[in-house]
Write a structure and sequence with these properties.
This protein is of the alpha+beta class. Helices cover 43% and strands 22% of the residues.
């Protein structure tokens, strides 16, 4: 059974508890910048096991030293608590 979508108030409350994340329609996103390409890729490799363990896979975009992450719960059709839980885990790695 898919996780329940959060309403706008719950999304805003959860966003206020995170640093650097913002809402982009039915997703939350954050942009990271690193010293170089290898550091950016190492960051992606550190968060991959977290996503796999949570069975919740982010949309990742990498250009040189930048990594952009978008989270949404596709099977729920929007933002759920799973997105915020993974965002917090990603922040702990960053």
């Amino acid at each position: 059974m898919p996780a329940p979508k959060l309403d706008d108030a719950a999304i805003e409350t959860n966003l206020s508890a995170l640093d650097g994340w913002s809402r982009k329609g039915d997703k939350i996103e954050r942009k990271f910048e690193f010293d170089d390409f290898l550091t950016a890729i190492a960051f992606i490799n550190r968060i991959a096991p977290l996503a796999e363990e949570a069975d919740h896979h982010p949309e990742l975009f990498n250009v040189y030293n930048r990594v952009e992450i978008e989270l949404t719960t596709h099977d729920s059709g929007g933002i759920t608590q799973k997105d915020f839980d993974l965002a917090a885990a990603i922040d702990a790695v960053a």
